[in-house]
Request: fold
Amino acid sequence: MRKVVRLGFLVLVIGVTICAGINVYGDDAKVRSDAEAVACPRGCTKATSVSYERSPVAETVTYMNPGGTIRVTCSRAAILIGPYSCVRE
Reply:
């Protein structure tokens, strides 16, 4: 029984590590386009992204436009898995 618990814990830790790695190092083009759509619903013709912060649980994009700075945070529905949702700060 003890071996089964240890093996289950090992599999869980490896799974969490893989999910965290994918969130940080995976392709985030879709997330960035969603963040831009939230930051500038009518299009960001003069806005430039000035910083990207990625972590295993969220991604924050900061845009600079003539009207000021806009920060958008995108996070997954279930911490490490699920679709991203973006909100303007």
In short: The chain has one domain: 2-88. The chain has a mean pLDDT of 89. Residues 2-88 form one domain. Helices lie at 2-25, 29-39.
